[in-house]
Design the sequence.
């Protein structure tokens, strides 16, 4: 059974606006969460992470929010740029349980 | 720059062939992983290893085996390739970074087609 879920397979956002990608998890033992970005025919590249002892981590245009009580995390990208168009994966746990990914399209 | 290198970007093999996918990392990482990525299914863990000669099954180990004789190399073996093993295969390595948790690095992937 999938422990990390990304329920939105795709998202389209205009350039300059905020992109919000969501992720839910079921295993309360997860203590570390990561977001990866993936282009076709390439391996995933690390974007940002958050420890379960925090509720927010920010790195430039990227912010991850963690709500442990809801077992939910979200990635905010502000402002969105066309180069952000990719598939975004949420992952958790030592052996990286991945969600199925959300394909983000940022339109000019 | 740290690297995870997968020996082939593209492979085409015949049904029933024994297939070896090789992965090498130069970061002295303890942990190595093999995933496959399929449309609509995301990345699924096949096998991982936390030390030389140690291996653990992931979520979908059936039809696969692995070998880790040296710390830097983790091989995925398809004993008898089948068409449902056509996929993108991704290798990753990680090590513990203390309060920052684990740092993971992925290879560029191997697109395997079984015909």
Sequence:
């Amino acid at each position: 059974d999938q422990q990390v879920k990304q329920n939105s397979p795709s998202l389209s956002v205009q350039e300059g606006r905020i992109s919000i990608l969501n992720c839910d998890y079921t295993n309360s033992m997860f203590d570390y969460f990561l977001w990866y970005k993936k282009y076709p025919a390439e391996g995933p590249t690390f974007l940002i992470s958050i420890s379960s002892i925090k509720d927010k981590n920010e790195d430039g245009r990227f912010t991850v929010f963690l709500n442990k009580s809801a077992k939910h995390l979200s990635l905010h990208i502000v402002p969105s740029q066309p180069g952000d168009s990719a598939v975004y994966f949420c992952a958790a746990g030592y052996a990286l349980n991945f969600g199925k990914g959300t394909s983000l399209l940022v339109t000019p | 720059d740290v690297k995870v290198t997968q020996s082939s970007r593209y492979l085409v093999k015949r049904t029933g062939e024994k297939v070896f996918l090789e992965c090498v990392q130069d970061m002295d990482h303890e942990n190595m992983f093999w995933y496959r990525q399929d449309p609509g299914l995301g990345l699924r863990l096949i096998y991982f290893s936390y030390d030389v000669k140690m291996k653990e099954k992931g979520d979908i180990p059936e039809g696969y085996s692995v070998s880790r004789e040296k710390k830097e190399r983790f091989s995925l073996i398809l004993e008898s390739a089948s068409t449902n093993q056509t996929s993108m295969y991704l290798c990753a390595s990680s090590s513990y970074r203390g309060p920052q948790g684990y740092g993971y690095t992925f290879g560029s992937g191997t697109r395997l087609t079984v015909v």
In short: The interface with chain A takes residues 4, 9, 31, 33, 35, 40-45, 48, 56, 58, 88, 90, 92, 94, 99-109, 111 of chain B (CB under 8 Å).
